[in-house]
Write a structure and sequence with these properties.
The protein has helices spanning 2-21, 73-76, 133-137; strands spanning 38-40, 46-48, 54-55, 60-64, 80-87, 95-101, 104-112, 121-130, 144-151, 153-154, 159-160. By secondary structure, it is α+β, with helices and mostly antiparallel strands.
Length: 161
């Protein structure tokens, strides 16, 4: 009985170490602090978002991926985007998309603000790119983009701001 228990414990430890050994390298594909955030304007163009501007409800935002292999479709397909909300929530989970920014097609994380047109609200948290949710929790700070948006609603004329 002791041998079976010892063998089972050894197997569990080996599998645990193997999953760490085969974890993806975050330098292959990630987001980086200080990366410009883009949004789709009312004309459908993707332009740079200036920190401090008011964001519109039901808008799409993009954070370009960076890293050694983030232009390789096979490599990028192994990754997922995760948002750790501190305030508010996104309309849906962020996802990695192939999009045209500044004349070039690149992979970027797309996230959308909720379609709330009855009040202003804040959206804040950390955006991470990793192969699994547990890997995203263990990412170092340099692979995290802090998202801070104020989504505005203009009560005077009943439109978003």
């Amino acid at each position: 009985m002791k041998k079976i228990l010892a063998l089972a414990l050894a197997m569990i430890m080996t599998l645990g170490l193997a999953s760490v050994a085969f974890a993806a390298d975050p330098t292959e594909c990630n987001v980086a602090e200080g990366t410009t955030i883009y949004y789709k304007d009312s004309d459908g163009n993707i332009v740079a978002y200036n920190e401090g501007d008011l964001a519109a409800p039901d808008a799409s935002f993009y954070v370009p991926l960076s890293g050694d292999k983030c232009d390789d479709k096979t490599t990028v397909s192994r990754y997922k985007a995760f948002f750790d909300a501190k305030v508010g929530k996104m309309a849906s989970d962020p996802e990695i998309v192939f999009v045209k920014i500044n004349g070039d097609y690149i992979y970027a994380v797309e996230f959308k603000t909720p379609d709330v047109t009855t009040k202003s609200y804040d959206l804040a948290g950390d955006l991470k790119v990793a192969t699994t949710a547990s890997a995203a929790k263990n990412l170092e700070d340099q692979y995290v983009v802090a998202i801070n948006l104020e989504v505005a609603y203009d009560e005077a004329d009943g439109s978003d701001g």
